[in-house]
Amino acid sequence: MAEPLVLYDLKDHVALITLNRPQVMNAMSRALRGELVAALARAGAEQARAIVLTGAGERAFCAGLDLNEISAEPNSLAEAVTPDSPVNPVAAIGRCTCPVIAAVNGVVMTGGLELMLACDMAIAADTARFADTHARVGVVPGWGLSQKLSRIIGPGRAREMHFSAQPLDAATAERWGLVNRVVSSKDLLDQTLDLARAMAAHDPDNLAKITDLVRLGWELPLGDAMALEAERSRENYGQAQPVNLVGK
């Protein structure tokens, strides 16, 4: 019987989801993307309070889309980036109501980098390497990389990654703010799961509200985001009148 392309485990309210094609650096075939979307939905159905996403093996978190499959089936690329597609994992991560943490082991590039940036945060092994090779392979980003990366690391650094396709080492990625922190590769999964369990210890409904508010606010101008926070806060406390946010 064939190995599943995505492994799933739920323990202590934390879902561990593992891309399982280590022989091809966890490249995302259509079948793998479908299994990943299903695993993320399963985590929601089983009321996971945090999700950790990682890749099998030591070589790679994810090398991006399966280019051999795309070459053979060009239409599969358009399907992959359609927001309501059943094989769009980035959209599926966005539907998760709990925090999603990427545990980045080894190489993460192009579509894999977009997958990482769809998560709420990333913890990287000291062996991790990061690259955007869209320009090199002749593909245009479709999962938000061209917009998110500059907002996270700044436009000049983002353009360097987009236009050069050169890799960053883990220390540089941490210094630029691409990942939250860098840890020893042997400790990566344990430390990421510890962080996820700390999140899962909170009230799940309140954590879901804060997760949603942070995600929505990040996409808005500051004034609109502040207004959104005030509105959500009033709704949460059942107040009809605006609250004074000074000192809150």
What would you say this structure looks like, in words?
The protein has a six-stranded mixed β-sheet, with helices on both faces. The model is unreliable at 240-248 (pLDDT under 50). It is built from twelve helices and ten strands. The longest helix has 16 residues, at 30-45. With 248 residues, the protein is an alpha/beta fold. A hairpin with a 2-residue loop joins strand 1 and strand 2 (14-19). It folds into two domains: 6-200, 2-enoyl-CoA Hydratase, Chain A, domain 1 (Alpha-Beta Complex); 204-237, no CATH class.
- Cα gyration radius (Å): 18 Å
**Helices and strands, in N-to-C order?**
EEHEEHHHEEHEEHHHEHEHHH
Reported for the largest beta sheet, the result is: 6 strands, mixed
Strand content: 15-25%
Total beta strands? 10
- Examine the coordinates and then state which fold CATH places here, giving the name of the CATH topology of the largest domain: 2-enoyl-CoA Hydratase, Chain A, domain 1
**Quick one: CATH superfamily of the largest domain?**
2-enoyl-CoA Hydratase, Chain A, domain 1
Count of the separate structural domains: 2
Determine the fraction of residues in helical runs and give it as a percent range. Answer: 40-55%
The CATH class of the largest domain is Alpha Beta
Outline: globular
Summed over residues and divided by their number, the pLDDT gives a mean of 93
Query: Per CATH, which architecture of the largest domain?
Result: Alpha-Beta Complex
> In which order are the strands of the major sheet placed?
1-2-3-5-7-10
DSSP summary: helix tally? 12
